[in-house]
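Demethylmenaquinone methyltransferase
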Amino acid sequence: MAVVPYKDQNNDKKSQVAQMFDNIAGKYDFLNHFLSAGIDIVWRKKAVSLLVKEKPKLMLDIATGTADFAIEALSLQPEKIVGVDISEGMLAVGRQKLQRKGLTDKIELKYGDSENLPFEDNTFDAITVAFGVRNFENLKQGLAEMNRVLKPGGTAVVLEFSKPQRFPMKQLYQFYFKNILPVVGRFVSKDRAAYTYLPESVQAFPDGQEFLKIFEEVGFKNTKWHSLTFGISSIYIGKK
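Tokens:
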């Protein structure tokens, strides 16, 4: 059974995830940086650095949210980045951010379903996803769509939470995720479910070698996996 934010609702995971991000959009950036003590910024920089040699010209950022990853990816000097998300609330915050920073000519944000991407085959030089694949309703379908719109020889980089396996980080992580993060997240965002859903979805997500296996099943090759910060998050890389 899929992990969903609002267990008292009958609509599908995709609808619930969109609703959840609409609800917390205004506080999302603050909570991201606060709850991770800013280390999420370091993780994004590391993920982007893995694309330096690729010199991508046209990039796609899936589950772009408020466009933090897309903005970080501008350091690669692409001609254009397209960001897609299913939450209009998050996209609205992202567009305001791009407007303030004068980046609307470099980054375009648009509504888009990760499992049915509105692009032709073989369109993008590189694809990025930060903390988004965990929210796909159908993980395999979403990854297959990424592969479809990626150019042959192109690279996909996925940054996602994972589960530390070693003492004492495993125990500290579980305590923080179950007891501290939901309370702070609920207090700041005013959404009772969002920051309970986060640890539940991380727990259910097939990380590490399990994820690489699915990555390869949909067509990605030369796959690699980098563990970050004692296994709290991971970067997965694959080529088409």
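Strands lie at 58-62, 80-85, 107-111, 124-130, 150-161, 221-228, 233-239.
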